[in-house]
Amino acid sequence: MDMKVVPVREGNYNLKDYEKLRENFSWDDMKKYFSWDTTGKVNMAYEALDRHAEDSEKKNKIALIYSDPYREEKVTFKDLSKASNRFANILKDYGVEKGDRVFLFMPRSPEFYTAFFGILKVAAVAGPLFEAFMEQAVRDRLQDSEAKILITTPELLKRVPQENLPNLEKIVIVGDHIDDSDKYIDYYKEMEEASDEFDIEWVDLEDGMLLHYTSGSTGKPKGVYHVHHAMIQHYATGEWVLDLKEDDTYWCTADPGWVTGTSYGIFAPWLHGVTNVVRGGRFTPEDWYNTLEKYEVSVWYTAPTALRLLVSHGEEKVSNYNLSSLRHIMSVGEPLNPEVVTWGLKAFNLRIHDTWWMTETGAQLIVNLPSLEIRPGSMGKPIPGIEATIIDNEGNELPPNQMGNLAIKEGWPAMMRKIWNNPSKYESYFMNGWYVSGDSAYKDEDGYFWFQGRLDDVINTSGERVGPFEVESKLIEHKAVAEAGVIGKPHPERGEIIKAFITLNEGYEETPELLEDIRTFVKTGLSAHAAPREIEVKDSIPKTRSGKIMRRLLKSWELGLPTGDTSTLEK
Ligand code: 6R9
Question: What are the AMP-dependent synthetase/ligase domain coordinates in residue numbering (predicted)?
Answer without folding.
Answer: 56-417
